[in-house]
Structure formats: structure tokens, C-alpha cells
Design goal:
The protein starts with a helix and ends with a helix. It folds into two domains: 32 residues; 38 residues, Arc Repressor Mutant, subunit A, CATH 1.10.10. It contains four helices and no strands. It is mostly helical.
Length: 77
Amino acid sequence: MLGVFAEFETNLRRERQLEGIQAAKARGVYTGRKAAIDPAEVQRLHFEEKLGPAAIARQLKIGRASVYRLLNKASVA
């Protein structure tokens, strides 16, 4: 029985948290973390200097998955 009350309280707390996040986003306070990688630099290295994803990742000291994600996002757009 106690477990049911704990689960109910957890659900209420989660709902209140989501409402607070939505309100903060509406006020422009909750914007998330700033991007640490410059997508334009990844594009430049790939298309102008003809570097592969692994070389770009090593040069910028980022993960290869990040390079692939940025290149994929650019090709879709």
C-alpha cells in the first residue's frame, strides 16, 4: 500500500516539474546548454579541406559521432 502512495507522489512531482519547465521555457529562462561545437567549422573542414570525420574529430577534439551527427544534419537541411 505504501508503494502505491510513493508512486502516486512521484507522478505528481514529475507533472509539477514538467509544468515548471514549460513555464520557464515560455519565459525564455530554460534555454538549454550552449553549443560547444561550431557546425560551420565542421562543414568547412569536411567540404573545403576534404577531411574525413575521424580527422575532423581529432582536430576539434570532439567525438566522431558528433561529427557524423552534424554532417548528417547539414545534408538533410
